Amino acid sequence: MMNSTMKQLLTALAISSAVIASPASVQAADKGATAIEQGKKLAFSRSQGNCLACHMVADGAMPGNIGPALIAMKLRYPDKQKLYNKVWGTPDTQNVPNSMMPPFGQNGILTDEEIGKIVDYIYTL
């Protein structure tokens, strides 16, 4: 029950945050914008990160609803390395039973550098 309520809350927050200016647009002027833009491209690519297959992202088209919405990521993962480990597939981060998220680094789906760029982008959400 709590899990369902949390998903509904995160979805509502993600939808409402689409109206508010995205932090990514503010950071686009920063010198690190290139890595963030590359991370977004990788995350939205169907042949690579494919995050939109399962997750809702504020500026993503046709998002999935299998995984949680990718919002408030700095709040959810204050330690950026833990987010990286989750995407990479470090065994101790696979604490969600029956998760459908593949371990992208462990299975060689993405390189460490690609995962780093995706995490840089996701961390702006």
TrEMBL record:
Record keywords: Heme, Iron, Metal-binding, Signal
PROSITE patterns: CYTC
Ranges of residues in domain Cytochrome c: 34-125
Domain of life: Bacteria
Pfam families for this protein: Cytochrom_C
Signal peptide region: 1-28
NCBIfam families for the chain: thiosulf_SoxX (TIGR04485)
Name of the protein in question: Sulfur oxidation c-type cytochrome SoxX
Classification of source organism: Bacteria, Pseudomonadati, Pseudomonadota, Gammaproteobacteria, Thiotrichales
